[in-house]
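Lab manual, section 2.4: Encoding a predicted structure.

Procedure: take the sequence of the chain (218 residues), apply the prediction step described in section 2.3, and record the output as structure tokens. A sample record is shown.
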Amino acid sequence: MTTLQTNGAADPLPFVALPDFKAALSIAESDTSQDKALTDMLLSASAAVESYIGRQITAADYTDHIRIKPGDQMASFVLDVRPVLSVTSVVRHGQPLVIPPDGWDFSSSSGILYPENGDGSFWGPGRYLVSYRAGWVIPGMTDADENPLPVTLPADIRQAVLLTARSFYTAQDRDPLLKSESEQGVGSTSWSLPDATTGGLPGNAAAFLSRYLSAGFS
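Recorded output:
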């Protein structure tokens, strides 16, 4: 299966708003001296979190290309981007299928799309294009009139981005391989290092994402 994003934000947006990141770092909102660097950290952290989850997660219109080989059939399709918000069309061999009277039957959270006839029916052999809207609204997204949309990205994903971005920030002035350091009369400090088993995310960030994982990480 191949998934194409057909619209969405023109430029990449971080999953956490810059003011929230600055507040977490105790940086005054009026201090803009680091804004470019902080935004880059948020974008990198957002990309790392999305990569770890294993699929796109931001609200947009998508099209999945699905092929069922001759002689095969499927009880359902599993759309790649979730949560599914609506299914616009299903096309088979270039011909749009008739939309059922009550609309296409799908599970928002799992992305499962059922055949038109419901119980006991199957998707038959062929090449399908499924167009749908899916994903969560992230900070900075707007509607057609440029009005801000309410953020729907779950809090645990935003927390994972914050923790990852914070790890980038604290790593700026130290050896990236250093796990801890001590200073006489002051005490010691330890850091959580990225791990290959968590896709390079700090362990505490990865822990927030377990329920969103696709195959590939555990």
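Check your result against the sample. The longest helix spans residues 35-53.
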